[in-house]
Amino acid sequence: MDEINLMLNGEPVTVANRTNVQQLLLAQKIQLDRVAVVCGGDVVPKSMWSSTLCEEGNVIEIFGVVAGG
After folding, report:
1. What DSSP character marks residue 20?
2. In b/e form, how buried is each residue of 2-26, taking b as 16+ CB within 10 angstroms?
3. Using CB atoms within 10 A of its CB, is residue 41 exposed (0-12), middle (13-18) or buried (19+)?
4. Edge-to-edge strand ranges of the sheet holding 59-64
5. What angle do CA 55, 52, 56 make, to 5 degrees?
6. What structural domains and CATH numbers belong to the chain?
7. How far lies 19's CA from each of 6, 28, 56, 65, 67, in Å?
8. How high is the mean pLDDT of the chain?
């Protein structure tokens, strides 16, 4: 399988097989230093983005990080 299908912020997305979370964010033109990633209900630490592969059917949510209180 050369491509996989997943949900990104509620929208269907098709990416190349073996795409990692960091590559997914870059392909979507998302600034890496301003977001948090949740995959399947679990937070993916930024240190794991490059080693966490997207899988068929993943549900990924991207949250903007806002400073302040």
Report:
1. B
2. eebebebeeeebebeeebbbbbbbe
3. exposed
4. 11-16, 3-8, 59-64, 35-39, 42-44
5. 5
6. 3-64 (3.10.20.30)
7. 11, 12, 11, 23, 30
8. 94
Please answer whether residues 22 and 32 qualify as being in contact, where contact means their C-beta atoms are separated by less than 8 angstroms: yes
The 3-state DSSP class for residue 5 equals: strand
Long-range contacts for 8-12 (Cβ within 8 Å, ≥24 apart)?
A: 8/60, 8/61, 8/62, 9/60, 9/61, 9/62
Range of weakest confidence among 15-19, 47-51, 58-62, 65-69: 65-69
> What's the pLDDT tens digit per position in 31-43?
999 899 999 999 9
Average pLDDT over residues 30-58: 96
- What global pTM score does this model have? 0.89
Query: Quick one: tokens of 15?
Result: 């990416």
